[in-house]
Design brief:
Strand 9 and strand 10 form a beta hairpin. This protein has two domains: about 130 residues, Aspartate Aminotransferase, domain 1 (Alpha-Beta Complex); about 240 residues, Type I PLP-dependent aspartate aminotransferase-like (Major domain) (Aspartate Aminotransferase, domain 2, 3-Layer(aba) Sandwich), CATH 3.40.640. With about 400 residues, the protein is α/β, with parallel strands linked by helices. The longest helix has 22 residues. The protein contains twelve helices and 13 strands.
Length: about 400
């Protein structure tokens, strides 16, 4: 039986269920499995945000909102970005979305015509490629591994020169990055901006992890080229609201009006009750992410130290909650084989680097969005696997 039905949208032939989800589900049946697989904060939603949602239920705030979201949440989201990152948005610059994932889909659906080129620094989170394909765009991946996962102007220039037949329309940025945790300094962004302007590229900047930045101040690319930036953010990571699915798109008013056309036919509007909770999170909970970030920093330092000592090569992450480590040289197998063997023998599930593209092959991603007790147990299991000679594949 064919794995693909020919009577459906042909673009689906280029799309698969995320390897992240596939591997997470495949390992769930292993007894005593300890999973550090998903980007799922282990914190609970702050109580005052929960109370705001309960109040919205009590107030019967259960009807459709405007497509872009209630004015209060859009203004609160704008104020958050303005205060935190020196931007200049108001409610008219904002669409409230069903998570950052829908924001990405709506933005790409607005920007792309068939055949338009999109530059994608890799390795990168797996959501972008399928959507570019679905919208008939042409993805051009740029391998950032040689520069510790940091994109440079020269890399972009080279990618464009290597594909003279492609009309490049956009570039995707995600920083702090999933899967590497690497982020960009202000001076690095300033250098990139010169190329973005030169080629008039739309910048789809996914900054969902902006509040989880360590040792440096997050700089939004929207502060440099707001007229070319579609900024994507949300509350899943900063306020642990993953299941509540609340995200935001920020852009110039004219662009917002165009994206709204795509957004409204995808979802109509974000959930009314969650919008009320988001107002509370963005105002009275404007700094809720800081406490989480302090704890993540402790976890990062611990896991980074332990895995480095085991022989993993790691670009030190400055944000998010991931370690992206190169599998030690003696283990001469691909990332999927390594992770399957680790899960089966030592009951520890990490994500194979290949889930983030060919550029991630040979690496594993660990999510340290778990408490220290679990992380300490995970490091014991990983070390036991690494230090067992029989596990080495020659």
């Amino acid at each position: 039986m064919s794995l693909f039905r020919t009577d459906l949208n042909a673009q689906l032939n280029q799309i698969e269920v995320s390897e992240i989800r596939q591997f997470d589900e495949a390992t769930s049946s292993i007894p005593d499995i300890l999973k550090l697989t998903l980007g799922e904060p282990d914190f609970n939603i702050p109580e005052h945000v929960q109370l705001a949602a309960k109040q919205a239920i009590d107030d019967n705030f259960s009807h459709y909102t405007s497509n872009a979201g209630i004015p209060e949440v859009r203004q609160a989201a704008a104020n958050f970005q303005n205060k935190k990152y020196g931007l200049h948005y108001n409610a008219d610059n904002v669409i409230t979305t069903v998570g950052a994932s829908e924001a990405i889909a709506a933005a790409l659906g607005t920007v792309l015509n068939p055949g338009d080129g999109v530059i994608v620094p890799a390795p990168i989170y797996s959501a972008y490629t399928p959507l570019i394909n679905f919208y008939h765009g042409v993805e051009v991946r740029v391998n950032t591994r040689p520069n510790n996962f940091v994109l440079t102007p020269e890399m972009i220039e080279q990618a464009i020169q290597d594909h003279p037949d492609i009309q490049f329309k956009a570039i995707v940025l995600n920083y702090p990055s999933n899967p590497t945790g690497v982020t960009y300094r202000k001076e690095e962004l300033e250098a990139l901006v010169t190329v973005f302007k030169k080629y008039n590229l739309w910048v789809l900047s996914d900054e969902i992890y902006s509040e989880l930045t360590y040792g440096t101040t997050h700089t939004s690319i929207a502060s440099m080229i707001p007229e070319q930036t579609v900024l994507i953010s949300g509350l899943s990571k900063s306020h642990a609201m993953t299941g509540w699915r609340i995200g935001f798109i920020f852009a110039d008013v004219d662009m917002i009006e165009e994206i709204k056309k795509v957004h409204q036919y995808m979802v109509t509007a974000a959930t009314s009750i969650v919008q009320k909770a988001a107002v509370e999170a963005l105002t009275n909970g404007i700094d809720d992410g800081r406490e989480m970030a302090r704890e993540y920093l402790k976890r990062r330092d611990y896991v980074y130290r332990e895995m480095s000592d085991m022989g993993f090569e790691i670009a030190r992450p400055d944000g998010a909650f991931y370690i992206f480590g190169k599998i030690p040289a003696p283990f001469n197998q691909d990332s999927m084989a390594f992770c399957k063997d680790l899960a089966q023998k030592n009951h520890l599930a990490l994500i194979p680097g290949h889930a983030f593209g060919d550029e991630g092959e040979g690496y594993v991603r660990l999510s340290y969005a778990s408490d220290m007790t679990k992380l300490q147990e995970a490091m014991k299991r990983l070390r036991a696997y690494i230090e067992t000679p029989a596990n080495i594949v020659h």
